[in-house]
């Protein structure tokens, strides 16, 4: 019976055949232990000299790392195995012999591993991270479908900047100027005016010359937008969504979290509702914690976010930032127009902002004023202004960065390990 490692529990006591690669091996005299992987998981194959032909035993001992095989054996329970099973091997068919695989079991430097990212993905730790990433993506679709959201795909090539910044990748679009999208939000607002509740999931690009462990040049965003929705209602959706993601990973990726040595008790605490702290109180808290130079009106950096997060044991919303340090489309607080109805969700353990969201300006005159203040002239933003002209309604939305969220939930230090082929400031290979 041909099967895969992730379904091995269905065949206890039965003989199966698996197509696999040799991740590692060790042998001692009359027995060889093969660490096998097939893309769905890892399992140990035990080759006893007494149970196989001399030819098969010598093949087992001579197999090289990452050689591919069809391997046949009996599935047996083994409590010592993380999987709970191992394979008592009866036959090996060599498909391809790998020679001098560059990533050996010894320690390698990060740059070396990044140069061989196409091969590094095969390792147990990287496999676990990608499985958790996949689970978060699956849970995202589940959550928003259950909540009545429609999936809408915004364009990647745009004629304008979502947040009016200069950190854009410029390209020629035939005889026009174009940019790689830094956010699908503006288009999702248009979709929300057509469908009520929508979300997108796709790649975004920031030409930001940053080398921190939190930044990528190309990354993936989940961006919901909701018509007839207040800022507070949006915050409720956000915290329920993040709680759902964590719960889904805990339920479906226990083995992967174990491989990554993630503290699951910390994750079990992540349940809505989350704490909320205003920007004003965050400034006071930072001063109490020794950040005496921070002044009202300044944006928070990584050390500030970490200090605030450390004050709580779960994610925390920082709300009502000054309007001058936030995007042009954010709605001012009606009782205090110098701040906007927005929030950043800061993950604990030093992972920083994973969500940014706000109520959006729905008043045509105020949006026209914002256009003038930010010099958003010409036809590029005309369509966005028309959303306030034809049937404007209160609406709100947010964006969650997938890679930062994967890093936080899986406990990985650097976001470069949370995407299959990271694009960094000085890395476009492989």
Automatic annotation (TrEMBL):
InterPro entries: Aa-tRNA-synt_II, aa-tRNA-synth_II, aa-tRNA-synth_II/BPL/LPL, Asn-tRNA-ligase, Asp/Asn-tRNA-synth_IIb, NA-bd_OB-fold, NA-bd_OB_tRNA. One of its GO terms (cellular component) is cytoplasm. CDD domains: AsnRS_cyto_like_N, AsxRS_core. It is found in: Cytoplasm. Transmembrane segments: none annotated. Signal peptide: none annotated. Keywords: Aminoacyl-tRNA synthetase, ATP-binding, Cytoplasm, Ligase, Nucleotide-binding, Protein biosynthesis. Its EC number is 6.1.1.22. Homodimer. Belongs to the class-II aminoacyl-tRNA synthetase family. This is Asparagine--tRNA ligase.
């Amino acid at each position: 019976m041909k099967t895969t490692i992730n379904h091995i529990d269905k065949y206890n006591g039965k003989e199966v055949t698996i197509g696999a690669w040799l991740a590692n091996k060790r042998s001692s005299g009359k027995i060889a232990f093969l660490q096998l992987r097939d893309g769905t998981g890892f399992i140990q194959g035990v080759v006893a000299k007494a149970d196989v032909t001399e030819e098969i035993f010598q093949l087992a001992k001579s197999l090289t790392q990452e050689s591919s095989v069809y391997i046949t054996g009996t599935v047996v329970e083994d409590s010592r195995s993380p999987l709970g099973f191992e394979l008592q091997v009866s036959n090996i068919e060599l498909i391809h012999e790998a020679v001098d695989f560059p990533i050996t079991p010894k320690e390698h430097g990060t740059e070396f591993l990044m140069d061989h990212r196409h091969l590094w993905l095969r390792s147990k730790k990287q496999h676990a991270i990608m499985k958790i990433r996949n689970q978060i993506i699956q849970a995202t679709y589940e959550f928003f479908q259950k909540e009545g959201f429609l999936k809408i795909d915004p364009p990647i090539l745009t004629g304008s900047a979502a947040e009016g910044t200069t950190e854009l990748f410029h390209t020629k679009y035939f005889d026009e100027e174009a940019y790689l999208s830094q956010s699908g939000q503006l288009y999702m607002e248009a979709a929300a005016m057509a469908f009520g509740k929508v979300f997108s999931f796709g790649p975004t690009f920031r030409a930001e010359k940053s080398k921190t462990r939190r930044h990528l040049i190309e990354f993936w965003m989940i961006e919901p937008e909701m018509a007839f929705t207040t800022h507070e209602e949006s915050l409720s959706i956000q915290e329920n969504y993040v709680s759902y993601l964590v719960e889904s990973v805990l339920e479906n990726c226990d083995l992967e979290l174990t491989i990554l040595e993630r503290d699951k008790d910390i994750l079990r605490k992540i349940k809505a509702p989350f704490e909320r702290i205003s920007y004003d109180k965050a400034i006071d808290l930072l001063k109490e914690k020794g950040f005496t130079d921070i002044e009202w009106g300044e944006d928070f950096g990584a050390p500030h976010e970490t200090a605030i997060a450390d004050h709580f044991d779960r994610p925390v919303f920082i709300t009502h930032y000054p309007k001058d340090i936030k995007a042009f489309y954010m709605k001012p607080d009606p009782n205090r127009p110098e701040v906007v109805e927005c929030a950043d969700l800061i993950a604990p353990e030093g992972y920083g902002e994973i969500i940014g969201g706000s109520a959006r300006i729905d008043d045509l005159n105020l949006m026209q004023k914002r256009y003038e203040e930010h010099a958003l002239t010409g036809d590029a933003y005309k369509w966005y202004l028309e959303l306030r002209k034809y049937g404007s309604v209160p609406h709100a939305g947010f964006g969650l960065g997938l890679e930062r969220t994967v890093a936080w939930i899986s406990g990985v230090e650097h976001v470069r390990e949370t995407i299959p082929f990271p694009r960094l400031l000085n890395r476009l290979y492989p």
